[in-house]
Amino acid sequence: MQTIYAEKNIPRILATKLIARYWPDFVWTPFSSARAETLPDPPLPGPNWLRVRNRLCGICASDLHLLFVHADPSVAPAALPGNQRFYLGHEVVSVVTEAGPGVTRFKVGDRVLMDTRFAGANCYSLGINPPCRQCALHEEHFCENKSAPGPRGMGGGFGDSYTAHESEVYPCPPDLDDDQATLVEPISCAVRSTLRCLPKPGDRVLVIGAGIIGLSQIMAARAFQPDCRITAMARYPHQAEMAKRLGANDVLAGREGYEGIARLTGGKFYSAPMNKGIVIGGFDVIYDCVGSGQTIEDSLRWTRAGGTVVIVGVNLSPVHVDLTPTWYHHVNLIGTYGHGHSTWNGRTRHDYDRVIDLMRNGRFPTDGLITHRFPFKEYKRAIAASMSKAKEKPIKVVLECAS
């Protein structure tokens, strides 16, 4: 089994965090917290487990956060004792090569998408019955027993194969090609965040960030509420161009700031000494697909009274944010994590199902979103391209894992 993973080894984590910012290739040295290894193929740990062979895997910003330790070791998820090794790669389409005797959902030869596997163990994979209240609602990302002792899968999307409990993967329909299939997971995150706060007809919507999640957010907001007005905030011209193609009415550069926000929304900008200011009468809904301290604070000050900020992106680092608008203007602040089961029009479905349906009817156009592809053996080049936004102009970089 070929695989790339990051380990929770505090001395190596601190060394990587300090050195990799100046020398990125440090992550590939024996002294970093990352490993690219060939391991013996593990046996299936139980009758309801699968072995799959990877075909195509996207590179996600969360993978890069773990690889280069952009994530801070002090953040909340690091406290969970079950999180000791993080196998990278979750935007992956694979083929079942071995199924345990208790598997009922899949057979050898089926294509599958990684579902809850990246989020860690859950009651079903651990064999806990009855399941916790989160797993009973099929919100396995939030399993209350995920750090309990029990079997864990090995490997991830960054590699040739992995093992998983049958509940941790999802059937891939035959009419989706591999490119579409590997985009289901990132787009599903935007479906979930949209349904966490669905814009109303006529709402002014801002999407901060125009990487793959921000672009997916534009598609999702437009698909679920065609009558809203969407503004995208993009850092690079190639992102701005794609944002317009996918449904943004307006595109702002980050440098346009508070006065530009006020002009666009018809609001009023107020500033004061030692204060960056605030926009009164700003956006109705803001989806922050960056999730830095600055973007969260700006979002709260750019939202109208009674409006909503949804934190979609995350830097996995503690942030310092002025929360005054949450009480002074009743701005709602909502978090969202990954994908799962969301309710819309009174019907609860897996976010993957909604993405697949919208891909089929053309409302989630995926042509052009995959801009770079590399064979797995060139994973270092692929990761470098993912991080070179200005020069390489990536939107989604994928690894071709099939030999």
Oligomer: single chain
Whole-number mean pLDDT: 93
What value does the Rg take, in angstroms? 21 Å
**β-strand amount:** 25-35%
End-to-end Cα distance: 13 Å
CATH superfamily of the largest domain: Medium-chain alcohol dehydrogenases, catalytic domain
How many distinct beta strands? Answer: 20
Tell me the domain tally.
2
Unreliable spans are: none
- Tally of helical segments: 13
Descriptive overview:
This protein has 13 helices and 20 strands. The protein has 2 domains: 2-172 and 370-400, Quinone Oxidoreductase, Chain A, domain 1 (Alpha-Beta Complex), CATH 3.90.180; 190-337, 3-Layer(aba) Sandwich (Rossmann fold). Helix 5 (178-196) crosses helix 6 (212-224) and helix 5 (178-196) packs across helix 11 (351-360). The protein is an alpha/beta fold and 403 residues long. The strands form 5 sheets. Strands 3, 5, 6, 7, 8, 19 and 20 form a 7-stranded mixed sheet that branches. Strand 9 (204-208), helix 6 (212-224) and strand 10 (229-233) form a beta-alpha-beta unit. The longest helix has 19 residues, at 178-196.
